[in-house]
Structure formats: structure tokens, C-alpha cells
């Protein structure tokens, strides 16, 4: 379905400067493309943390996974994104979405922000991208859209560079392939430029404690449903499986949590 080169990203959360910059340098040394971090109000803020990581590395990209649109005015989010992109030498990717439910709940509790309806949140995402494009001028900050419903997928087809399809961990491969094909068709002349990014939450047979809470299921059920959120086997078997996912589903980029960085490194070496 695609012959785009493989790209791999590490998702991590800063605990302190030594740990955070250590993850950044390790990811770069092991051949990962990008260091990502979430945008949640109970963790460090993404823009200053990512700026530090970019400054401590030379080729590693940094990005948000993903910025919650409702937490910032579009112009403010675009301003910070453009600044980080420019000062990192173009090594920043803006990942953005309408906000996960728990993030919106925290925004209400901690900031007193009332999340607007889904339609308005999606409009905020689009406005942020438009503001970023205006600030970028001749430059181009890559934008990833986390797209769930049909309207979000249509926006991703129109304006994203990278797309991650928000879906149930039990979404069948056939359905996922159909969604990828739908977005590519809507993208028209831009279809071959789009990169599809797939999150992998578990490498191997044991899930960290936070995975069942996040996915609201257990490892046994994920295995039974052939979930795309897990990857098992030897490094060679995992590499072969990712080649199949690229060929049959169109995914060329994958994200893994930093707890698996050493375990996944041999797979990166086989595929890059």
C-alpha cells in the first residue's frame, strides 16, 4: 500500500532534566526519528520540555502527542509551535487533536475551562493549523492530526502531513485499512505525501500497569483480538509484522513508549 520509509517515535514524560535529556539522547543514538510527549495538565508542559530535548540533540525531531486544541487559543498554540519549529531548525512536529475526555475534565477542574462542543473543538484545531501556516511563511511545520470521526478524518485529509487514526484497540485490520484508504482518497493530490502513524502500547507479552487503564482491557483480550496496539515475537518477527502492516494497512510510522526503548531498538535497527 505504501513504500514510505519506516519512522519510529518514542513517547516519554519528563521526570527531571537528567532523565528527560537522557531519553532524548538515547532515542537519537538508537535511530528513533522523534521524541514525543503528551499534553496533559498533570504533567510538565510540552513546549519548554521539547525545546530542551531539541537543544540537547542534533537530528532528533520532537513533537506533541497530541496537543489538546481546547487548552489554548489557536493563535497562541500556533505561535508556540512556530517558535519551537524555527528555533529547533525545523525539527518540531505539531500533533494536535480535539482533546481526550480526561484532559477536558482536568481543564475544567484545574483551569475552569468549559470544553466547547466537538464541532467547535475541531474548528479550533483547523484554526490553529491555519494560524501556524500563516506564521510559518515559506517554512512548513509538519502537522499531525489525531482523527477519530469522519469530520476529523476529512480535516486530516485536507490539512495534515501525518495522521493517526483514533480507534478502538479492537478495530479490525480490514476496517483500519478502509479508513486509511478513505483519508487518502479525500486527500486527492496530497495522498502520497501523507504519513500514517500507528501507536503500539505493548512490546512483548506483558503490559505495563497503565496500559489496561488506558485501553480499558487486558493483554489476553488484546491478543485474542489481534490488536494493532501490541507487537510480539522476536525482533525479526516484529520487523516482519511491521512490514506487513505497512504493506497491507499503509502505516509507515510507529510510536512506542520509552519503557520499551531498549526492547524495541533491535527492530528499529532491522528496519532503518
From TrEMBL:
<dbReference type="InterPro" id="IPR051260">
    <property type="entry name" value="Diverse_substr_monoxygenases"/>
</dbReference>
<dbReference type="Pfam" id="PF00296">
    <property type="entry name" value="Bac_luciferase"/>
</dbReference>
<feature type="domain" description="Luciferase-like">
    <location>
        <begin position="16"/>
        <end position="206"/>
    </location>
</feature>
<keyword id="KW-0503">Monooxygenase</keyword>
<keyword id="KW-0285">Flavoprotein</keyword>
<protein>
    <submittedName>
        <fullName>LLM class flavin-dependent oxidoreductase</fullName>
    </submittedName>
</protein>
<dbReference type="InterPro" id="IPR036661">
    <property type="entry name" value="Luciferase-like_sf"/>
</dbReference>
<keyword id="KW-0288">FMN</keyword>
<keyword id="KW-0560">Oxidoreductase</keyword>
<dbReference type="InterPro" id="IPR011251">
    <property type="entry name" value="Luciferase-like_dom"/>
</dbReference>
Amino acid at each position: 500500500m505504501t513504500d514510505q520509509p519506516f519512522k519510529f517515535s518514542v513517547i516519554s514524560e519528563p521526570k527531571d532534566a537528567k532523565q528527560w535529556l537522557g531519553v532524548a539522547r538515547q532515542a537519537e543514538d538508537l535511530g528513533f526519528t522523534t521524541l514525543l510527549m503528551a499534553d496533559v495538565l498533570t504533567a510538565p508542559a510540552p513546549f519548554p520540555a521539547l525545546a530542551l530535548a531539541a537543544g540537547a540533540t542534533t537530528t532528533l525531531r520532537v513533537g506533541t502527542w497530541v496537543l489538546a486544541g481546547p487548552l489554548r487559543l489557536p493563535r497562541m498554540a500556533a505561535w508556540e509551535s512556530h517558535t519551537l519549529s524555527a528555533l529547533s531548525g525545523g525539527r518540531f512536529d505539531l500533533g494536535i487533536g480535539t482533546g481526550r475526555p480526561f484532559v477536558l475534565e482536568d481543564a475544567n477542574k484545574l483551569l475552569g475551562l468549559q470544553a466547547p462542543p466537538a464541532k467547535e473543538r475541531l474548528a479550533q484545531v483547523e484554526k490553529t493549523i491555519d494560524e501556524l501556516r500563516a506564521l510559518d511563511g515559506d517554512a512548513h511545520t509538519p502537522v499531525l492530526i489525531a482523527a477519530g470521526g469522519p469530520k476529523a478524518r476529512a480535516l486530516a485529509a485536507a490539512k495534515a502531513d501525518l495522521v493517526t487514526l483514533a480507534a478502538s484497540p479492537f478495530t479490525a485490520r480490514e476496517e483500519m485499512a478502509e479508513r486509511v484508504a478513505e483519508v487518502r482518497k479525500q486527500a486527492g493530490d496530497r495522498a502520497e505525501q501523507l504519513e500514517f502513524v500507528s501507536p503500539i502500547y505493548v512490546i512483548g507479552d506483558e503490559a505495563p500497569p497503565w496500559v489496561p487503564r488506558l485501553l480499558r482491557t487486558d493483554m489476553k483480550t488484546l491478543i485474542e483480538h489481534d490488536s494493532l496496539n501490541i507487537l510480539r515475537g522476536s525482533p525479526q518477527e516484529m520487523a516482519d509484522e511491521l512490514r506487513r502492516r505497512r504493506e497491507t494497512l499503509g502505516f509507515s510510522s510507529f510510536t512506542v513508549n520509552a519503557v520499551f526503548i531498549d526492547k524495541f531498538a533491535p527492530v528499529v535497527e532491522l528496519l532503518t
